[in-house]
Structure formats: C-alpha cells, structure tokens
Amino acid sequence: MEEFHLSVKRTARYYVLADESVPITEVWLVAHGYGQLAQYFIRHFKCLLRPGVMVVAPEALSRFYLDGTSGRIGASWMTREDRIYEIHDYVNYLTQVYEHVCKKINKTTHRLVVLGFSQGVPTVCRWVAETSFPIHALICWAGFFPQDMHWNTDLKNRFSIPVYMVYGNEDPYIKEDFINNLKDFKQQFLLETKDKAFEGGHTLNEATLMQVANELRNI
Fold first, then answer.
1. Tens digits of per-residue pLDDT, 197-211?
2. Which of 47-56, 124-133, 185-194 has the lowest mean pLDDT?
3. In this structure, are strands 73-76 and 111-117 parallel, antiparallel, or unpaired?
4. Which of 53, 60, 124, 145 could connect to 116 by a Cys-Cys bridge, CB 3.0–4.6 Å?
C-alpha cells in the first residue's frame, strides 16, 4: 500500500464582531478550543468591543458530533493522525483568514492581538511562529506552546512580543506539573511571559480578559 497527499480546495468559515463607528485600530484573532464552534466562542469577546475594535474567530476545519452520531457539534484543529499536514493546513488557513479580513480594513493602521484557548493555544503559537505579519501580543489561555517547536534564535526573536499565560486556578487540565514546566521552559529559553491566574476552571474569564486587554492598550 502506498500513501499519497494532495491539496484540495474547501470552504471554511469565520465570525466577526466589530465596532466600526471609527476605523479599525485593534484586531483580535481568537482560536477556540477542542469541541467548540466559533459562533459561540466569539461571544465571550463582546466585552472587548469599543470603537475601532474587531474580533475575528476562525472555526477549525474538522467538525464532529460531540456525543455519538447526532446532537451538538464541535470542531477540532487537529489530531495526531497525519498531523504534519493538518498543521500545515491550519497555518495556511489562518493566514488566509487574516488576509481576507485585511481586505476590508487598513493593514498598516491596526494592532493585531492573537489569542488561543486550550487546543487553540498550540494552533496560534505555530501560526505566530510561521507568519511574517506584525503581531502586537500573544495570549495563551489554558494551554501552552507545542512541545515540538524548535527554539532557535529566530523563533525566540519572534516571541519577543508580550506573551501572556492565563489559566484558571481550578482548571483540571492545569496541574502542578504545568506550572513547573512553564517555569523550566521560561528559564531554558529565556522567554518572558506575563502569567495570570484567575478564580475558575477551564474557561475564559471576562474580568481577566479585560485586564489583559487594558494592559495591552497601554503598551
């Protein structure tokens, strides 16, 4: 048996929240977690809206039933199956989403903030590492950098932007090992991050999100 790969064209979707009463000066590209859909995920970011702010939520390309063969549907950015090609596909996909958004707004007059939640964290980290677009900040919420990233000098420079690590203090996926690994990782690669823990579990938190947004608007 011989395996082959080919590129195919397919239709993807993304959602936008925006206050366009003035020209857009701040874009948030947000990637949902495993089993979520962008149309519901983006609702968590309504609190960010003010004149000139746009939130863009791409939806992962693989959808599935969350329970059996019917009912609620979620989406996933990738699995371990054929993972190299899936990573390549979603990196290209996020680039196309951002380029599509930039056709409607001035690419040179806004700041881009990238946020990933849970499975969306390694997704956006890989995109930030690959893209040449200027990025103002990266927010890793309830997740961490993918372990297979090769931290050479160029990659370290790419992540010299403000990087936030945000998680709930009752998140079942954020164990003590996560905190220790984060500390070791930062020391090993001389990576500076702003770490924020909030009261809660594996979820977004409006007060913490607004706190981070206000800090970034003053940088």
1. 999 999 999 999 999
2. 185-194
3. unpaired
4. 124
The structure tokens listed for 14 are 């993304």
pLDDT digits (tens, 9 = 90+) for 38-80: 999 999 999 999 999 999 999 999 998 999 898 999 999 999 9
d(CA 101, CA 95) in angstroms, rounded, equals 10
For the chain, domains (ranges, CATH) are 14-217 (3.40.50.1820)
Q: Is residue 117 within 8 Å of residue 32, measured between CB atoms? A: yes
Here the tokens at position 82 are 């054929």
Cα atoms in the Cβ-side hemisphere of radius 13 Å centred on 25: 8
Tracing tokens 């930062």 back to the chain, one arrives at 186
167 in Cβ contact with 130 (< 8 Å):
no
Cα four-point dihedral sign 111, 57, 154, 219: positive
Classified as helix, coil or strand, 165 is: strand
> How far apart, in whole angstroms, are the C-alpha atoms of residue 214 and residue 50?
12
What's the distance, Cα to Cα, between the start and end of the chain in Å? 55
| CB neighbourhood size of 94 (10 A) | 26
